[in-house]
Amino acid sequence: MEIEFRVSLNLTTGAPGGAGVSPALLPSVETQKPPARCRRHLRKPNHLILSLNSGNIPGMPFEFTKSYLKDSIDLFRYYKRLGDRAMSQAPDDALFATLDSESNSIAIIVKHIAGNMRSRWTDFLTADGEKPDRNRDAEFEAAPKTWGELNSMWESNWKLVFDALAPLTEADLSRTIYIRGEAHSVMQAINRNLTHTAYHVGQIVFLAKHFAGSNWVSLTVPRGKSAEFNAKVASGKKSQR
Question: Does 170 score more than 60 pLDDT?
Fold first, then answer.
């Protein structure tokens, strides 16, 4: 699994988050200057943002499952990670930039994803998924102005998704809920929001890659590395998700 891990490393102890670092990982540790939004979160001068080669680190591998709910939650987490990792590579000003007058910025896309999630997942089983107070058109206007505002919007509404999914059981999948007055099974509603989210996360990845330029680090299989990646999956060294 091609993942960029960003950790705060205490240089006095060599311990990220209080845990020891295996010596085997140290050769794969590379210091890197993070975007300004990340630098603002650094509170101690002896902490750095690091990029770790995921090939040596246990990640969150693909797991075989027959549970629709488990796989749906795993997929939501996968697409959130893609969005997180893409935005972490975009220059600060690129989060608010557009390619042309008809395009949306990353910030606007995040605002729309957040508005959609808030409407769909609040009182998921008991209220229509299109809430009366939602103003969808406004989601494409007045973008968040700072990384802090954008990130708060992103994280709080992802929390709504996972909090709503967590208590569901397989028996809930056939229950009926409504979106704009149209009946959906719970399974259909989950599929609808999952694909909507994946669609817009793909836009975020495209824009982040465009603005990052030559500094971009692949989020999936790097160009020209398919055979190598396939071999690592076959050997159990990497995962497909």
Answer: yes
